[in-house]
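Cross-check.
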Amino acid sequence: MSSRRLRRMASAMIVAASPCAAVYAQQTAPQGNATTLSAVQVNASRMGMPPIDVPAALSVVRVAPSESGEAGVNLSETLVGVPGILARDRQNYAQDEQISIRGFGSRSTFGVRSIRLYLDGVPATLPDGQGQVSHFMLDTADRVEVLRGPFSVLYGNASGGVVQMWSAPGTSAPQTTLGVYGGSDDSFRYSVDTRGTVGLMDYNVAASQFLSGGYRQHSRVNRQSAHARLGFDLGHGQSLTVVVNHLNQPRAEDPMGLTKAQATADPRQASPAALQFDTRKSTRQDQLGVIYERPAGDDGQWRAMVYYGEREITQYQSIPVTTQLNPLQPGGVVEPNTHYGGADLRWSHRGQLAGGDYEFVLGAGGDYQRQHRLGYENFVGTTLGVKGRLRRDEDDNVDDVDAYAQWYWHFMPSWALMLGLRHDDVRFDEHDYYITPRNPDDSGSVDYSATTPVLALQYRPGDALRLYASYGEGFETPSYNELGYRSDGQPGLAFNLRPARSHNYEAGLKWQPASTMAFDAALFRADTRDELAIATSVNGRTTYRNVHDTRRQGIELSFDGQLAPDWHLIAGYTHLQAQFRSGFLTCVGTPCTTPTVPVASGSRMPGVPEDYGSLRLQHGGDTGWREGITLSSAGMTTANDLGTATAAGYAVFDADVAYTFVLGEKERLQLSARVDNLTDRRTIGSVIVNDGNGRYYEPAPGRTWLFGARLSF
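Predicted model, tokenized:
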């Protein structure tokens, strides 16, 4: 990133995301000899308590992709054994990973929806609710936190949960790691990470490049990433953290989805429309955040955060030329350039009430998004896949203001109470500058607001066991990607869409039978009114609608622990029933602007398997040999509202082996080999819900190989 850009970003910083206070969570120690689960600082509930005392489904995962021979490219590599969350690798870096929690987010055709994302406490979700994880760098990461259920609504505009990645602080002695990986489909990744301490500053800085020819035809990608976390000790309990992030993905080809016949005949092929229109995306993002903390008397703390970012995208879609020629349509090239940022201030206080400890948190913040969106024809004359005439020119702006309060009270030796309240005001403003006699002014605005409470009660029958029950209300606004096109084919944005409102219930158990083992279980239900669902998805353009009532309910189970010296197991399982609770009309075939086919109440929601899970069994220590096997599975998944299109369930095994050489007192060399999809099973990695052309299926790779080398000194 240029110094000029950095100066400009620093001068424009004005916000911060929902910040949180320190909580101590239990996390698996480095795999090897059996050790107690070590305490680390996490950010899940904004309050200072061990994770066993947090009355919510919370998973904290140590990030160490090299332990399983992974290259460190996708967030899904870190989520093995985490229940509730399903991360599907589309093998399509133009659209990012498909991540859902308890079924929320499965409708997303690209990026991440319904889930709040944070990187080192800085939002990776835009104020309108659209998120992405392409700039998450695993090289610097220390841990990933996944918060599910009612308490996630305290983070604002999302329904399903919160995912946060945290970088490790700098080491007391300088440490540098060089990595190189190469494998199937001409895939290579090069990385360097250096961390240490200089005076009162600690640092963790990394850069990488990922190149791949792609498993499927027309899926080549070139991604360059950099991330830096700098921590400053200002004395007297004060600290300053600076987070800088850069992503440049100049070309990521989009092979698009396949019909069932195409996926069966050749899962490696691209859709003919993808080749015809050369569908692809280029992305550049730069982001800067600053966090300042200081004591507030003997029993309190102030925390302030500001951040600013810029994101530029150019995407070529496969919109038919006849459709693009319609004067009301915005063409086939989308070019949104976005400036965003925000600020957040929080005060926390600890004390005693009626003989019991309490902690109170009060905060307020705001975020903004300024997006200038252009649209062009994806053809010039008879040549397709090139930028043509201007067809869209508008400003899509978002402003939100929020305030929140939380109170935790350990009112009896075996009982604790937690209360929370949040209020959000979100305003969308569109200013249309592309106005012609045949294309009217589509400017408009809409306001959404909600007050969302949370209540939890916890019982502690013993030091190793916790029982809890919680309730929370949440809301989720449409994003600009969902407002962008009306489902009835009329011009203008879909400001007729309503926000989704949810009632979330959870009951859970947390048990630590030994210092090296942890078992969690949770029963959950989420009832949603005005669910945001896909109306049509045709040729890369998706429209949305509200469905009156839906329900998601199920159970999550997880285990994390040492089975014996040098043997470690982590496993997670989710059973999820996701249903439409009210009937509605849907589209069948294309083109379709008027839904006419009924979907019955009780029908299964598309994109959500009923059962899914993963586990990893690993043997070995920090040096010498280390071996592991990973299992990932998911049940049958429907791809449309009627349930007439389905992707079969699967169980995929991966195996890896590594040897770490001790070269000196501080020097280590690790060589690794990994095989994914050991049995070479054909599977569908993800589905595109309600695709109007029947191109629902995105095939996952067959058997692939990956070799790696990492040198630390």
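The helical segments are 3-12, 260-265, 272-277, 321-324, 480-483. The CA atoms of residues 199 and 696 lie 55 Å apart. Passed to J.P. for a second look.
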